Amino acid sequence: MIRFVLDGAEVEAKEGETIWQVSKRLGTTIPHLCHTDRPGFEPEGNCRACVVEIKGERVLVASCRRLPTPGMVVESRGERVEKSRRLVFELLLADHVSPDLDSAFLGWAKAVGVEQSRFAPRTASCAPDTSHPAMAVRLDACIHCALCLRACRDVQVNDVIGMSGRGAHSRISFDFADPMGASSCVGCGECVQACPTGALALAGGPVRAERMVDSLCPYCGVGCQLTYHVTGDAIIAATGRDGQANHERLCVKGRFGFDYSRHPQRLTVPLIRKDGVPKEPLDPADPFTHFRPASWEEALDRAAQGFKRLPKSALAGLGSAKGSNEEAYLFQKLVRTGFGTNNVDHCTRLCHASSVAALLEGIGSGAVTAPVAEVANADLIILIGANPSANHPVAASFIKNAVKRGAQLVILDPRGQALTRFASHHLKFKNGTDVALLNAMLHTIVAEEIYDRDFVAARTTGFAQLAEHLKSYSPEAMAPLCGIDAGTIRMVARAYARAGSAMILWGMGVSQHSHGTDNSRALIALALLCGQLGKKGSGLHPLRGQNNVQGASDAGLIPMMLPDYGRVGIEAARSRFEAGWSVDLDPNPGLTVVEMMDAAAAGTLRGMYIEGENPAMSDPDLAHAREALAGLDHLVVQDIFLTETAMLADVVLPASSFFEKTGSFTNTDRHIQMGRQVIDPPGEARPDLWIITEMAKRLGLDWTYTGPDEVFDEMCGLMGSLSGITWKRLDAEGGITTPGGKAILFGESFPTEDGKARLVPAKGLSAAENPDSDYPFVLSTGRVLEHWHTGSMTRRSGVLDRLQGLPAVNVSPADMERLGLTEGARVRLESRRGSVEAAVAADSRLSPGALFLPFCFTEAAANWLTNPVLDPVGKIPELKVSAVRLVPLRHPG
Ligand SMILES: Nc1nc2c(c(=O)[nH]1)N[C@H]1C(S)=C(S)[C@@H](COP(=O)(O)OP(=O)(O)OC[C@H]3O[C@@H](n4cnc5c(=O)[nH]c(N)nc54)[C@H](O)[C@@H]3O)O[C@H]1N2
Ligand SMILES: Nc1nc2c(c(=O)[nH]1)N[C@H]1C(S)=C(S)[C@@H](COP(=O)(O)OP(=O)(O)OC[C@H]3O[C@@H](n4cnc5c(=O)[nH]c(N)nc54)[C@H](O)[C@@H]3O)O[C@H]1N2
Ligand SMILES: [Mo]
C-alpha cells in the first residue's frame, strides 16, 4: 500500500495501481481519451486528457501511466490542470467532424466544459470508407487516440491497423492504407468497441438501443460473454463483456452474426409433409410446395404417434450441442425413457468423440485439464490439428498474447494458418500421419531419457509397454512417412520435454481420423511422459467446438453413457438414474451418429427425432446419409430453418433460436454460463424446452417442467459433477467452473480406479483412403472464419455471408499452375462417393497435392466426397482425409 494525497485527501494505492486507477476506484473518473481500463489495453499516455499536477514537478503528467509514490501530492482538478485539459479538447474538437453526437469523446468534452473550439479546423471532412459490410471508417472524426490500433495490435493481435503519414498528416490506416474492406481485417470489431469518437463505427451508424441484455455468443466453445443491444424485436449490435473466457473480446461471428434470428426464412409454423410428395431438396424459402402448415396440437400429435407406432429398437434421437444443458438433458431423457432406447447421440460423434474416448481411457476424464487461459502461464504451446484463428478466434488472441509475452508456439498441422507467423516452428507434415510424427517424438523423449521420471513413476502406469512399443518408431523411421526430417522431430520433442510448463491444444485435425483415438492417445502420452499437466501453464486441451458440446456430452447425449459418463451397461450407473427417473433403463449401448445412418439405410432404424442438427450436410458420405434419412418411416426435425435435413422430414417443428430462450451452456473450459433470452421467438416458433416437454407428454411421460430452472436443479441433484450448484447460484454468479470450481485438474491424482493415468501405445500410421493414380489429391475438409458448420445460421447472416459467400476449394499455387487453373476457375471434385463443383481459390498455406474444402456451402457440400470409415473406438468418421480428383470445367456450370 502506498499512501499519498489526492485532491487534498489521504488515499492509498495498491501495488502497481496508477493515479488514474486510484481515483476511479475512489469514485472519480479522471477525463481520458486514449486510455481505457478495459482488459488487455496498456496505458499509453498520448492524449493528455488525463493530466494531473504533482506537487514539485514542473510539467503536468498523464495519470493513466503514473504510479503514485509515498507522500506524493496530486491535484486532478484545479486551474492549471483544467486549463490544460480544455486546450486538449479544443484542439481535438477543431479537427473533429462528429458522426456520433453521443460519443464518449463529446461526452468528455462537455464534461470539461468545451463545446466549441477557438481554433480553425486543420483538415477538411472526407468521405467515409464504407468498403466493409459491417463497419464504417470516418477519419475526419478520428482524434488519433490509437485505441483502435492497440485493440488490433495488442488485444486481438491482428496487426491490421497502424499509423501512416507523419506529423499533421499522420492517420489511422489498414494494412498499406487499404480500404478496410480490402484489407486483411478479420472483422472482430474490437476497434469499433474501443473507438471513443465514432470514427470507427458500425456500418449503419452509432446504435441507440432500447434495451441491453447480457448473454452469450451462440457459436463456438470459447463461450464469449456479451451484451446484446436490442431495439423492438431485433438485435442491433453486440459488445463483448468481461467473461472469464473472453475478457470483452469477440470475433466476427459473435459481433455481427446474430441477424440469422430474424431472417425471413425462419420457420414460424409447424409443418406436416403433404401426402405423396417425394422427400427431396427444396427451396427453403418456400416449404409449402411439400409441406402444409399445422397447429402445434396436430403437429405434436402426429410427431408422437409416428414414434409410438414403431418398435423402440427402431427409434433414435439426435440432440443438439447448440442447445442448452437443460435441453440436452431433457432430450436424452426423452429418448431413454420415452423411446426406451439408448439410441441418442449428437455432433460430438463427428467431433471430439475420439479425443474423449482416449482421455477417458488415459486419465479418467473426457474434458480439458486446464482452460485456454492457461496459455498465459505456459512456456511452450503445442497446437496440433486446430486452426483457432478461424474457429476459436478469441482463444487464438490469447495464444498470440502468450507468444508476445514470450511463450514458444509450435504448430503441427499439414496446412499453414494465421497463427503460423507466431510459431517458432510449424511442422507441415503429411495429412493423416499424426501417429508417426507423435510416436517419433515420444521415441525421442524415451530414448534420450528426457521424460519426467518422478511423474511417470508416481502418476502413470504402462510405461514399460509404451517404451517397448515406441522402439520401432524412431524419427529416422517415421520421417519418410510424415514428411518431417528426424532432426526437426527431435528438436521439437526436446523443446516440449524440457519446457518448464507446456500446454497441448488440439482440434479436428487430430480427432477426425480412422485412428483419431490413437492420435489423442499419443498426445496424452506426450503430456504424461513429460509431466506437463496438473500444474500451472500446463495441460491437455481439446478445443471443444460447439457452444455447448461439453455440456451436451456431460448431460448424457451419448449412446453408451448416461449423464456424467456412467456407462449404460454398468448397474450402479443406471440405478442412480432409474431411481431418479422412476424407470428401468436399457443396459445396451445405443447407436452412434453414423451407425444410425447405416441402420436407417438397412431398414432396422425407422423413426428419428432430430433436434438442432443437420446431418444431411454434416454427416460423411451424403449420398448414403440423405438416402438413409429419406428412407425413414418417420422423421421429425426440430430446427429454426428448413435445413437440408428438415426437407426430408415428415413433421417439422419450428424452434427457438439461441436468443429466444434462457438456459445454461458449458464452454470448452468446463465453465457453465447463463444464456439469457434476448428477444421473442418469431410467429408460432416455440422454445426447444417446451417442444421437448410436449413431445414427452405425448409419449406417455408425466413431465411438468415449466422452465430451465427446474430441469437444471434436477440435473444438479442427479449429476455428481454439478453437486452443490443450483440454478439460483448460477444465475447470481453468472458462471461456475465444474467440477468443483477447479480450472486446473489432476494436480494430485486422476479419477481412475488406481488414481493413476494410463500410458496407451498408439498405432495407425496412415489414413484409410490415400491418394492414388485415380484420385491423386488428398482432400481435407473443415471450416472458414465466417461460417458455421452447415451454413444454416451464418449463410443467413447478412454480414457473414457478404464477407464469405462463394463456395471455393482451396488449391496450392503449384497445383494451380500445373493444371493451368486461375483464381475463380470452376472445377469439379470427385471422390469414390460423389462429386461437387466449386470455384478455385489459391492457397499458399497448402502443400502441393492437398486440397481444402469447407463444409458450410450447400451448393458444394463437402460431405458428398468424404469417407464414412470409422475410428473403431470413438466411432468418428475420417472427415479429414479422402482421396479426390480435380476436374477443370471448361464452361462455367
Ligand atoms: N468459424 C467456425 N468456427 C467453428 C466452427 C465452424 O463451423 N466455423 N465449428 C466449431 C466446431 S463444432 C469445432 S469441432 C471446431 C473445430 O475447429 P478446428 O479443429 O480448428 O477445425 P477444422 O477446420 O476442422 O480443422 C482443424 C485443422 O486440422 C488440420 N488438419 C487436417 N488434416 C490433418 C491431419 O491429418 N493431422 C493434423 N494434425 N491436422 C490436420 C487442418 O489443416 C486444420 O488446420 O470449430 C468450432 N468453431
Ligand atoms: N466434412 C466435414 N464434416 C463435418 C466436420 C468437418 O470438419 N468436415 N465437422 C463435424 C463436426 S466437428 C461437427 S460438430 C458437426 C456439426 O454438425 P451439425 O451439428 O449437424 O451442424 P450445425 O450446422 O451446427 O447444425 C446445427 C443445427 O441446429 C440449428 N439450430 C441452431 N440453433 C438452434 C436452436 O436453438 N434450436 C434448434 N432446435 N435448432 C437450432 C441450426 O439451424 C442447424 O441446422 O459437423 C461435422 N461434419
Ligand atoms: Mo465439432
Quick structural summary:
Helix content is 29%, strand content 18%. The protein is an alpha/beta fold and 893 residues long.
Structure notes:
The protein has 893 residues and is of the alpha/beta class. The chain folds into 5 domains: 2-77, Roll (Ubiquitin-like (UB roll)); 123-262, 2-Layer Sandwich (Alpha-Beta Plaits); 288-351 and 548-733, Rossmann fold, CATH 3.40.50; 378-540, Dimethylsulfoxide Reductase, domain 2 (3-Layer(aba) Sandwich); 777-888, Barwin-like endoglucanases. Helix content is 29%, strand content 18%. It is built from 28 helices and 37 strands. The strands form 10 sheets. It has a 7-stranded mixed β-sheet, with helices on both faces. Helix 7 (296-308) packs across helix 24. It is globular. One ligand MGD binds next to helix 10, helix 17 and strand 30. This is Tungsten-containing formate dehydrogenase alpha subunit.
Mean pLDDT over all positions: 97
Distance between the termini: 73 Å
CATH architectural arrangement of the largest domain = 3-Layer(aba) Sandwich
Shape: globular
The main pleated sheet reads as: 7 strands, mixed
User: What is the assembly state of the chains in this entry?
Assistant: single chain
What's the helical proportion of residues?
25-40%
Structurally, the number of domains stands at 5
CATH T-level topology of the largest domain: Rossmann fold
| Estimated share of beta-strand residues | 15-25%
**CATH C-level category of the largest domain:** Alpha Beta
Helix/strand/pairing category: alpha/beta
The count of strands amounts to: 37
Ligands, ions, cofactors: ligand MGD, molybdenum atom
Give the strand order of the largest sheet, numbering strands 1, 2, ... along the chain.
14-13-25-24-23-15-16
